[in-house]
Write a structure and sequence with these properties.
single chain; mainly alpha; Farnesyl Diphosphate Synthase; 2 strands; globular; binds magnesium ion
Amino acid sequence: MEEAILFGPYGNVYAITYPEGVEERVMLAAEIIEALWIYDALPFQEAIEEHSAINELFYGLGHSAPPPTAGMRSWIKVIFQDYSRRIMELDPQHGAALVAKIRKYITEYDGTNVLFETVEDYIEFRKLNCHGSFLQWNLNIRLTPDETRLCSDFYAASATVMALTNDYFSWNMEKHEATDRVRNAVPIAMKQYNLSEKRAKAIVKGLAMDAENETRRLGLDLRNMGSERLRKNVEGMEVMLGGNCFWSACCPRYNATMGSEEREGCFAASM
Ligand SMILES: [Mg+2]
């Protein structure tokens, strides 16, 4: 796998975000999340045209070459079928819940080419996320249905943090990509509010920080309920969000085109 995707100068994103995770689960989750990222980042036609580069990444995961006639989407289906099998092997008792969540995400999130007019609509869409399911699976925590309901606002706020943090830091890379489906709040805010790029980025940073405050507040309420599972879940989420923000601010993937001054500013924003 391409190291630049996973590593920043201060470490591997999955080691930073899931330090307490079960090792083999975190490793498999990392593969799956990477595959979701690749799928998310590529316009469909371009993905087909750049098939050889993508295949190289997938071969690195231990898969064989796709049939010559297979399109990108059918190849991705093959890969995710294999992931389902490997999740179930690692966790026969509860793996099905994670598999179902990933399938739902692929169908609802990646299955649409909708272009969003407002940041509000876009954030609702971007809250569709597997991050809470991966977190629980990686940490081997199983929330009860009641606990899951109690966490719903907390998960929604944290999903907003994940999305907007990614948008803020990845925009420098994504703005240079040709894409047929914009998945970043910065250009949406520019258009919706008639803002310069710099001011739209400031708005997105502010919304991310606002969602961080909300996540923190809701997390404190959950921690005070006395359940060990809820406490672990909240602490795991806080570490994951903090790690993701720190890594995003430092990783070459998002920061390769920045000058040192700009990089310093992003780094400071993550602290
Ligand atoms: Mg992004």
